Amino acid sequence: MIVDDEALVRAALRSILESSGDIRVEADCDGHDAVDTVTATRPGLVLLDAVMPPPDDGLTVLRALRALPSPPAVAMLTAFDTSAHLRAAMAAGATGFLLKDTAVGTLIDAVRVMARGGTVFTPTVGRAVVDGFLGDPLGSDGAKPGTPGASAHAAALAPLTDRETEVLRLLAAGLPNARIAAELGISVGTVKDHVRAVLRKLAAPNRVAAAVAAHQAGLVRVPE
């Protein structure tokens, strides 16, 4: 489902996504109708404009969608790559953050990944997450791997079992549950159980926060 205050943008995004042949756009609407439309159509993924006029602005709609009994995954779309949008969207439970000038093929691939349970950021946003731009979700000092404070981040992973640590490593590398299951030779249901345990033990509100913790602890290294 596409949520944007501009009808032309919604029409363009619908046309782009449906040209893939394997993505169906259930509905599109502005922010005012977003909650009712999600409730009626139950999409698996919502592409939500981050900057819409109040009172139905992007963050307000995001919080309302994530508060639903069975919330969809929500990816923010914006023309502005700003720290304020990033921090607020991740804190509110967004599972992706894409710029509106993302290439068509990249956008389609990103939707496929997120529909399978993965997390996607535009390259600049992804770099910011890895660098601790969101702050430390576990409440420590925000040090990068290799710095004196990094040992505290590594210690935060101590409660995890070996299997949970491996699941976290693959999760932080951006793999959806099905790919993690294939890599480890276990069922998707077992992966979901491990992910829930990881989030609980790390006191992480979502997969993004857990991925940040893994990167800060040096569990996963991302090339420059």
Question: How is the CATH topology of the largest domain named?
Answer: Rossmann fold
Class per helix and strand makeup: alpha/beta
The overall pLDDT, averaged over residues, is: 81
Distance between the termini: 33 Å
Shape: globular
Number of helices: 11
Q: What is the H level of CATH, i.e. the homologous superfamily of the largest domain?
A: Response regulator
The whole-angstrom Rg is 17 Å
The name of the CATH architecture of the largest domain is 3-Layer(aba) Sandwich
* Element string (H = helix, E = strand): EHEHEHEHEHEHHHHHH
Number of domain units: 2
Residue fraction in strands: 5-15%
Number of strands: 6
CATH class of the largest domain: Alpha Beta
Outline the low-pLDDT stretches: 136-150
> Major sheet: order of its strands?
2-1-3-4-5-6
Helix content: 40-55%
Largest sheet: 6 strands, parallel
